[in-house]
Every structure is written in structure tokens, then in C-alpha cells.
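Field: COMPLEX_INPUT
Field: COMPONENT_COUNT = three
Field: RESIDUE_TOTAL = 752
Field: MODE = joint
Values follow.
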Amino acid sequence: MSAYLDSLNSGQREAVEYLEGPLMIVAGAGSGKTKVLTTRIAHLMHQGVDTFRILALTFTNKAAKEMKERVELILGDNSARSLFIGTFHSIFARILRFEAESIGYPSNFTIYDTTDAKNVIKDIVKSLNLDEKLYKPATVYNRISAAKNNLYTYKDYQADYDIKQEDERSKRPMMGVIFEKYSKQCFKNGAMDFDDLLVNMYLMLTTHPESLSKYQHKFRYILIDEYQDTNTAQYHIIKLLGAMHENICVVGDDAQSIYSFRGASVKNIFQFQKDYEDVKVIKLEQNYRSTESILLAANAVIGHNKTQIEKSLWTENGKGQKINLVCTFTDNDEGRHVADSISEKKLRNHFKNSDFAILYRTNAQSRSFEESLRRSNIAYRIYGGLSFYQRKEIKDFVAYLRIIVNPKDEESIKRVINYPTRGIGKSTISKLTLYANENDKSFWDVLCECRAAGIGGRAASSIENFVVMIRAFQSMESKKNAFELAEEVGKTTGLIKSLYNEGAVEDLARYENAQELLNAIQEFTQTPDEEGEIIEKSLGIYLQQITLLTDADKDDPEDSDVVTLMTIHASKGLEFPNVFVVGLEENLFPSSQSLYDLDDLEEERRLFYVAITRAKTNLWITYANHRYRYGKLVSNESSRFLDEIPEDLVDTTHARKPKSGQFSAKRDPLKQALQQRKVQKANYNHEVKGQFVADSPKDMKEGTKVEHQRFGFGKISALEGPEANKIATIEFDLLGKKKIMLNYAKLRIVNV
DNA sequence: TGCGCAGGTGTTTTT
DNA sequence: CACCTGCGCA
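Field: COMPLEX_OUTPUT
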């Protein structure tokens, strides 16, 4: 039989082998959830299920990527590549690309990120002459988003009595009108925001029975990760897609539900059992990740929540070290203490940087740790925060590309029509907008006939030049690939040049970012796939992909060894040998916004539970008596959650109020030793680091031993295809057989 | 029209 | 503290 089943415990194995009919896996933290999901997919394929009939949905790209890689690893070949594994948003975007026209959208629809969406809202609030303090873009956006996540259209919204009451109470009676205008504007722009990807998927399925039936047939097996985080829209889509075969497997843990602010509802877990007859429920309660102390602490904390599914997580792992509770004077001391602890732990126990994670409640907390780590010469990486694609210079560049692909995208046109400066000012824009609205024309069409809109003189000729330029780009689209086109855009628009000319240091960085965007597009077009598979690589697809990428999706360099800094939200699903959970203070964690609502407070507690359960071996929990907030030093009480951890599990050596600077270890002998170690390590790393120069495909023959930049070492076992485009089958030491297109793969020959 | 500066304002969490 | 906005000036 299949060897991959052998490493599973009985519950896991049952979950993998129960293929037909609805299945709910209640999987506690660290109980091997990902292993079950990936093995299940591999098992399905092993049973002869076609890859394109399996749909697996996750919440983050990272989780999707890991799942794909692990399936590949189990199967030992690249047959996993055509699996539909991805986030709800990215998979639906992919499907909607095919189906968009049936609901009136162009297939090259633009995907608006939160910033784009807020800009549209800002314009609408202005055009309605509303109080911009009251109708702040973020507030309006959140309200609309919440409605959409519940599948409310603007019509539903306007008709709902309770909503109306609520908006009037908060003095925002025009919310429904803004929602309507926003929806119409996005549609007119051929654009969808994040929520629309769900809403429109639902709309498409419910209004086009033939499409619904197509996807119901196609996806014979559906798997949903983190089911406790699904919102109403996602819930209904899953239900629709799975209605024919009812082979829906959901994995979830109510204790880890931390996205209710995004419309997620734990109720979906309970509802699942009511929606289908004979739902098989399997609980995974053995934790393989953490020491007993860590697990006991986590269980004790979550025990303070009223609402939860009964389960008890246990482990066979040893008791392990006590949890370190650390109190410092200020947030800067907190940073220093964490950096020092990492140094010390590295030295004593020979951990790598990547064995450590610092987890915090809010992104703003990263500052003190960045400083202390930098000072201690510890490499780190912050996940989250501003994505590469949200930087101004990148958004500007992308806006041009978006216009080429989808000229209806008014938002993008407005963003760059006068950047770089070409003398098309505010008054001209508002004239054009007015004319467009009055004559029911798209902004682009009005640009094309700007003189009819009453524009003359210099502005008119500038606009005409702009239109000619964009049209020229559009006609290049069929002749050039995405990279060549983007390069042309950078040159012709003067975008690259304007960045280069600005001269200051940060401008140089922006210039380099623009170059990096070009590199990314180049890579997208040139390297069809890791395995050399060729799929469509149009500019339109590229643009739809990048909006859904976050900073966390960026690949780490192969040789990177860094401490991870991230929010607790972002850490879900990950594990580290050593974890610092920081900032355990009232008003911060639990957040000040959550103190007056039991449900909110319980969600904060679940968040703390998630944080604790990331740790495998060592856990530190820290807090500071004083912290800079808005530039002012404020004092804090320790978090109520700390009192919920049984005392006997905690080491309080550093928990008593220290004097400021107590933990700064200027004369620490450890530090000197560390310096030496660093030098050694650098030498050692040097060999590994060395520039990876790929060898020519011509020199590769059957039997040649090679090294792949990502896949490691292997041997070519077969060659096929024409001389100019040879495809090699390579047996990798770690990953097994893979087919690689030599023209695209980066391989170097290993001399034995 | 464009840029620089002063002042106000705000912090959860993310696809 | 850091970002954004609005205002005033060239």
C-alpha cells in the first residue's frame, strides 16, 4: 500500500481515507492539520482522481503554497501543479477571469486593493458634498465591506431597517447612497475590490445555472482550510460548489477563530453539521508541536472562554522548560531584552536565527525590536506591513499597465494622467468627470473626445498626447510580451526617468523599486513555472495576481537565516522552536477596542491562544510598564491574560519590576563570545552563498549530476524534446522525480 | 500649478 | 511619532 499513510495516527489516517461525503475535521493547534490535508490530496490523486477535480481553498497564499509543495513532496513528481490550490480570493479571481463577461465585467477586470477602493470612496464623498470627517474613507469602506461579506447588495443595504437605524444613530444616513455609488463606480471602472471577488463569484454562480453546474461537476472534491475563518459569502459559495457531490472536507478549530472583524463566523463550523446529512466528524486532539508546559498554558488560557467546542488537546512531548515571563520598564527595554535573549539562546543551544519568532498584536510594535535586533547584528525579516505593490512608485507604474489592459479603470487613469506632470490639473479633471457623468460616458471615452467636453488649449493637447500614448501601448500588447511592454511604458511615460532624476537617496530606492517591478514582470514572463510548464502569461493575468499578493508572499532568498517578526494574525498556521509573544498589556493585548464586548474579548483570548501555540520548545511572554504611544510615554497594567496562566508553569525570574536598563548587557561575557561566533559563521556561510551561475543546457546529458537553485541536488535520468528546448527528467535527492525545461531552469553541473 | 511647511490626527488585526 | 491634509507662497 501507500507509504505516505504510515506516518499518520489513527485519527489522521481516518481523515485522509474518508473520501466520500461531507467531513469535518476539528483539528486542534499543532495536531497535524496540514499534514492531513496534504496527505488527503495526495491520497485522492493516488486513487486516480484527476488533479483538476480537486479544489483546495486557504486563506493565505503562504498556506496554499506550502500545501502545494507538500503534496508535491508526497507524490514525488510535479503532477500537483495543476491542482486548484489557492486562496479564496485568488481562485475566484481566476475563475472570474473566464466568467466575468457573463456578469458584465471585462475579463481583464482590475482588482482594487484597499487603497484604490478608499480613493474611489473619497471621490464619491466629495462629489456628494458630505462631511469628510464623518464619512472617512476607512469607516465607509469597512461598513461596505461588512455588508458585502454578508452578501448584502446596496439595495439590500438600503432596504434594511436596522442598518438604517444604525447609520442614522451614527449620523451617517448617506451610507447607503455612498454604497450604491461605489458599487456603480466600480462596475463602470471594470474593477472589483477584494470583497467583490467573493460577491461576484456568488452572483455568477447564482445567476448562471450552466456555470454553476460546470463548476459543480468540475470540483468533485473540495477541501477548505481554516473553516472557522469563513464568512457568510464564502460559506454560501462553498455550499453551492459542493452541492452536487457533497464531497466537502472542512478543517477548522473554533479556538483559533480570529477574523470576526472581517466577517468570519465560527458559527459556520456548527452550521456545517446541520447542512448535510451524515456529516462525519473527526477530532484531532494530539498535539505534536509543543512541550507540555506550553500546551497546558494554552489550554488554561482558552478555558476562560465561554463559547467553545469541547475538546482536550494533549501531547506525548515532555514537560519542557517553563514559560519565561518577562517584565521590562519600557518598550525599548523589551526590545533589548528580546534581542539579548536571542543572542544568548543562540549561543547556548546553537539555534539559528530562523528558529526564533517575535509575535505582536499590532504592526506598530515592530519598531523597538527592529532597533534592538539591528543593534545586536541579528538578521530579521518583518512580514506584513506595506506590500511591495503598495508603494507609491509601484502603484503609479502599475496604474499605467492597468489602463492599457482595462481603459475603463478611471481610478488608475486619474492616478497617473498628470504624473509625471504634463499640465493636466485638477480643474481639467473635474470638468472631464462632470462631462462623463452627465453624458453617461466612461472617463476614458471622454478623454478621447476632450474638446467636446469643453477642454481647450494646452490641456487639450496634453490629453490628446496622453490618449495617443496609451493607444500606442495598447496596440503593442499583441506584439510584445508583458515585460517588453512594461519596459516601453517605463521609458515612454518618463516614469523611470523622473525617478532617476530626483537624485536623493530615497529617490534612488524608488528608482530601484521600479526596476525591481520590471524584473518581477520579466521573471513572470520568462520563467513560465518552476518546473518549466508553459501557461498563459499575459499582462492582464499578472496584474490580477499582484493585487492579491502580500508582503509575506515574497520568497526568501535560499540562504537567508532570519528572525521572524510578525503579527499574531499572520503567524497562524506557523510554528517556531522559540517564540516571543510581546506587549502583554491591557489596552494593547487585549486591545482597548475589545474591552467592553465579551465576544471581542474572547476573540482576543483566542488570539493569545494562537500566539502561545506557535511555540515548540521555548516560549517567552513579555510586557513593558511604559510604552511610547503617539510619541508619548504612557504606563500600562499587565494583561489580564497573564493571570490565566497557571503559576507553576511560569518562570518569573525576569517578571519583577526591573530598573530601567537592567537587562542591557553591556559587559556580558556572552557578547564577546558571540562576536567570535559571528565571524566563524560568516565564513561558513560564504561557501553556500556564492553566486549561483547556471550552466548551459548543452552540457547536460543523461547521468549528469546537477544542482537546482531551489530543489537541491539531483541527477538527470532522461532527456527528451528538440535540441533547442530540451526537457530533462531529474531525480532529486530530496524531492524525487521532476520534469524540468532546461532553457528555463537554473541548473549548475556538479563536479563529482 | 506645484511645492513646502505647519498643524491636526490617529492604532487593532488582512485577502 | 509619523502620516496626511490643507494652506500659503513662488
